[in-house]
């Protein structure tokens, strides 16, 4: 039964997540929480780990949750389920690419989805910042370490640009986040 639940849960994530991994986080959260596979705090940790490890966040999360719930077979099933819709869509799009992208209705749909994806990613980011800095709703309490880390990371963007004249690389941001996390929470 767990194999079927993993397959259907992550198939839903794979089918209905637009805008990449960050756009999928709310859907992943809903699926994982509805089945009781992880609590909100553990999911937040796993999103951070999935972000800092190689590979897409959705695949990393699916693999972890599948492994956590049903071992190796569960990780394979969850990973295949989350990847299957994208794989099939890419096959279809590749076959129809030349004509589909020239179609004005397809272009209109893609232009309409872009602001929605931005809104979902922004809402997820705000939710994660507030949840980390203030805790969950029943017991709201300021988390000084999380507020400090959030301030450091937010300040690193303009500081890096001011000193180097370049945008902050996501890879460097992950390294800064990891080092700051070790410094603040590690000892």
Automatic annotation (TrEMBL):
A Pfam entry, by short name: Chromate_transp
Protein name as annotated: Chromate transporter
Keyword set includes Lipid biosynthesis: no
UniProt KW S-adenosyl-L-methionine keyword: no
Subcellular location, record wording: Cell membrane
UniProt topology in membrane: Multi-pass membrane protein
UniProt keyword annotations, A-Z: Cell membrane, Membrane, Transmembrane, Transmembrane helix
Record field: transmembrane: 72-97, 109-130, 136-156, 168-186
Main location: membrane
Organism listed in the record: Candidatus Lachnoclostridium stercoripullorum
Taxonomy, superkingdom: Bacteria
Annotated InterPro entries: CHR_Transporter, Chromate_transpt
GO cellular component term of the entry, any: plasma membrane
Similarity remark: Belongs to the chromate ion transporter (CHR) (TC 2.A.51) family.
Molecular functions per Gene Ontology: chromate transmembrane transporter activity
């Amino acid at each position: 039964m767990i194999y079927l639940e993993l397959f259907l849960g992550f198939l839903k994530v794979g089918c209905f997540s637009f805008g990449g991994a960050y756009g999928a986080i709310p859907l992943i959260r809903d699926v994982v929480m509805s089945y009781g596979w992880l609590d909100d705090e553990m999911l937040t940790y796993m999103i951070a780990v999935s972000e800092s490890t190689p590979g897409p966040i959705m695949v990393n999360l699916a693999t972890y949750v599948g492994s956590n719930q049903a071992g190796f077979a569960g990780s394979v099933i969850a990973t295949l389920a989350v990847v299957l819709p994208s794989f099939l869509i890419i096959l279809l799009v590749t076959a129809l690419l030349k004509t589909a992208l020239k179609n004005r209705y397809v272009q209109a749909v893609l232009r309409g989805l872009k602001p929605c994806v931005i809104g979902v990613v922004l809402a997820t980011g705000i939710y994660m910042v507030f949840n980390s800095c203030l805790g969950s709703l029943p017991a709201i309490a300021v988390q000084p370490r999380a507020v400090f880390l959030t301030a450091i990371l937010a300040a690193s963007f303009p500081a890096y640009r001011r000193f180097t004249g370049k945008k902050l690389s996501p890879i460097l941001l992950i390294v800064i986040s990891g080092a700051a996390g070790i410094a603040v929470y590690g000892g």
